[in-house]
Known about the structure:
Layout: H1 7-34, H2 39-61, H3 65-69, H4 71-93, E1 95-107, E2 110-117, E3 120-121, E4 126-129, E5 140-145, E6 154-155, H5 161-191
Antiparallel strand pairs: 1-2, 1-5, 2-3, 2-4, 5-6
Keywords: Membrane, Transmembrane, Transmembrane helix
Transmembrane segments: 15-34, 40-57, 64-85, 165-184
Amino acid sequence: MTGAWTAAASARRTALLVLSGFVIAGLNTGIGYAAAGTRAVAIGTGIVLSLAFVFAVRLLHRAAWLAFLSFLPALFVLVGSVQLAPDLALEQRGVRQEVTVVDAHADGSRHTFALSGATGPLAEPLVYQGSDPGYRIGERLSVLTDPDGELTLQDADRVDSGGKLIALLLGVSGWTLIALLAGWRGHVRRRTGREDTLVI
């Protein structure tokens, strides 16, 4: 990856990086579909593949700031590819129920809420990871449950496959712009003999 490249070589490698961004997003979304009930799998592969893209940007650009910048769209790609499949599956086959929060338990950042529906208590609780779940005992809400038992119960208002798809597309678009900029700047840097740097 050292020495000056021809314009054609730089263009080919830039196009390869752009294509890899689409492949990573598509591959991790496919993994998310295949393992929709276990998001940890898609999260793990998404992190590894995103780091590979960041490293490729660093090699192409010969400077680190664009590689660091590519972490932001990587977050959108990760969120979109991991959550798109379960959200879409719940929207397609999920059963909507009106429930009431009857009990709450917190274990660090993990909040568990017991629910009761029209036919009695639900066997599956509503689980929220974070600092402020926003649910209170006595509150009524709509939830989506998976009749196949593969996906966890979710608040219906927070299931949004369209939003996850937009996040995924925004992430890939960001990666594309960064790849094009990295290819152009990397070509110029090699042509002018500038060495690798962590800054610009």
